[in-house]
Design brief:
The chain is an alpha/beta fold. It is built from 13 helices and ten strands. InterPro entries: Ser/Thr_deHydtase_PyrdxlP-BS, TrpB-like_PALP, TrpB-like_PALP_sf.
Length: 331
């Protein structure tokens, strides 16, 4: 079953409350730099390393805030038999971890083609695992069915204000660490991370640029231009990309209005560019990241960044996760 939040608003206060709520459970992730990247890009580039966060991605922030918020906000949460979600991997792992932290049963619905390393991560937190067909509709249908039949409380992976507030804590930390950022690049799937980051960052510094990074085929810039979440009014599908963490084609009903208001530009990167950027980080920065994070690295190193934004001097890049299958690297 799904419970609506008390408020439909996402603002600076909600994000700061989330930061206080989850702070004792999570690490303040570091910011790394690379002189090689700075020289290549012609800017000071700061990498916010949420690939080092609990469960290996930023998703721990939103999942934990959702669990703790719903426990504290709704007295009747106790009548449910646990939480359920659907995920491409990272959110499922994060919710499984958050539920285990609070001793609450968790069920995660994942597509059959989810990478083995992410399946094993979910299982490691004693979560129940359910498989579905590899398309967005199946994920949602199976999760809703389980919520109804097994009396579970649904936590959506991005279209939930508690989740977005948790993800926004990335920006709280980042702007404390590097307060003079001119722009932040964020990889986008359903839109929860960029919604939280943009709301907080723009409230602190209205002049900061928020750049969305997408795989080929998402067409987010057109969606924003025409103020239409689903350009062709079709059933959503997964994009044809090796970056399974950002293959959601259509942003959420709650996230899209937020990111439409705050995103300043969209960078589209190919799988080849993501792979090369990810390899660069492995080899030169000695960090493990997944392709979803590599997308943002590719964007900051792109010709578009050099040609269109020469005035930007200090640019932040969110390394959103590090859950890549080491036994089956995409190159």
């Amino acid at each position: 079953m799904e419970i609506e939040n008390k408020s439909s608003n996402l603002g600076k206060d909600e994000i700061l409350e989330a930061y206080q709520r989850i702070g004792n459970y999570l690490m303040k992730t570091p910011v790394h730099t690379s002189s090689t990247v700075n020289n290549l890009v012609g800017k000071n580039v700061f990498f916010k390393c949420d690939n080092f966060q609990k469960t290996g991605s930023f998703k721990a922030r939103g999942a934990l805030n959702a669990v703790l918020s719903k426990i504290s906000r709704f007295d009747n949460v106790k009548k449910y038999s646990g939480f359920v979600t659907h995920s491409s991997g990272n959110h499922g792992t994060a919710l499984a971890w958050a539920c285990k932290t609070e001793n609450i049963p968790c069920t995660v619905v994942v597509p059959k083609d989810t990478p083995l390393n992410k399946i094993e991560s979910i299982k490691s937190y004693d979560s129940n695992l359910e498989f579905c067909e590899p398309n967005p509709q199946s994920r949602v249908q199976v999760a809703n069915k389980l919520a109804s039949e097994k009396n579970l409380l649904l936590v959506k992976p991005y279209d939930d204000y508690d989740v977005m507030a948790g993800q926004g804590t990335v920006a709280v930390e980042f702007l404390e660490q590097i307060p003079y950022l001119d722009a932040i690049l964020v990889s986008v799937s359903g839109g929860g991370l960029i919604s939280g980051i943009s709301v907080y960052a723009k409230s602190v510094n209205p002049l900061i640029r928020i750049f969305a990074v997408e795989p080929v085929g998402k067409r987010l810039s057109e969606c924003i231009k025409f103020k239409k979440r689903n350009l062709e009014d079709k059933e959503p599908a997964f994009l044809d990309t090796k970056a399974e963490g950002i293959r959601t084609e259509i942003c959420g009903e709650l996230t899209f209005p937020i990111l439409s208001n705050y995103v300043d530009d969209v960078f589209t990167v190919s799988d080849e560019e993501m792979i090369e950027a990810t390899k660069f980080v492995f080899k030169r920065m000695k960090m493990v990241i997944e392709l979803s994070a590599g997308a943002a690295v590719a964007a900051v190193m792109s010709e578009k960044m050099k040609l269109n934004y020469p005035q930007l001097k200090n640019v932040g890049v969110i390394l959103c996760g590090g859950n890549i299958n080491i036994d089956k690297l995409p190159w």
